[in-house]
Amino acid sequence: MLLYRRSTLTVLLALIFLSFFGTLAVIARLFPQGYDWRYRVISNLLSPRDNPAHHWFAACGVALTAVLILPFAGYLRRNLGVISSMGARGSAGSFIAGCIVLISACFVAPQHKHDVLGIRRLHELLGRSAAGLLAIGMLSACWCAWKGWLNDKSLAFLFWTWSSLTVLPLSGIFLSECLLLLTRLNPMWAAPIRNTLRHSIFWHLGFWEWTGAAAVFLFLCAAVFLMPQRAASFPNGRTEELLSCRGVKRPD
Fold first, then answer.
1. What's the domain count of the chain?
2. Is the whole-model pTM more than 0.85?
3. How far are the Cα atoms of 108, 129, 182, 192, 203 from residue 178, in angstroms, in the given order?
4. Which of 5, 60, 110, 151 is the most exposed place for a label (fewest CB within 10 A)?
5. Closest CA to 74 of 238, 237, 241, 214
6. pLDDT 10s digits, 115-139
């Protein structure tokens, strides 16, 4: 299929880089109060309060990025389905759901005082839900790569690359959120923890948001350039099994 050719996906990767990192980099330069990606969250660029002149441009860039990611869901399902149809469907479904939720978050302006549809901080809820769904999709793909690695050693590099891009950012976010929760549950520990980590970039959610965004992009790059081209001509992705059962060797 033309959409899943490596050349087409490479063009999509370039467009994703420009629509997300390129657009937000320009908006960050125009940010009224000065934008430091290590300490400020991405939502600041989409906020009418914090970025009244250009917030719509940033929102359009992120929404376009989510649209451009959608074809990769089908690409993952097509190629990983040879290894595990369930894992491939889980990965593709999570990516699709994550992109849809992310698009929704772009059209819900960050609110700091007023509820939206009766929900406090709906934008933040949608943003975190989108991140969680994308993380599930990446973990499902890692599981497929691990399962394939057991039978095909050529998938080892893909598995370790995907795992590093997925597990390391998730571990950092989890640790940061645990420390934040700890400061809320035990106020006596709040001051020591904040005094120790307040100057560290690892304490700030903005750093992990940008790290996670870069990890998703590199994950897609690895899917295009490191994943063996195993796309099947049959809809259920079991061409190899059908050919082997019939004693037919696939031509190179």
1. 1
2. no
3. 27, 18, 6, 15, 11
4. 151
5. 237
6. 555 566 788 889 989 999 999 999 9
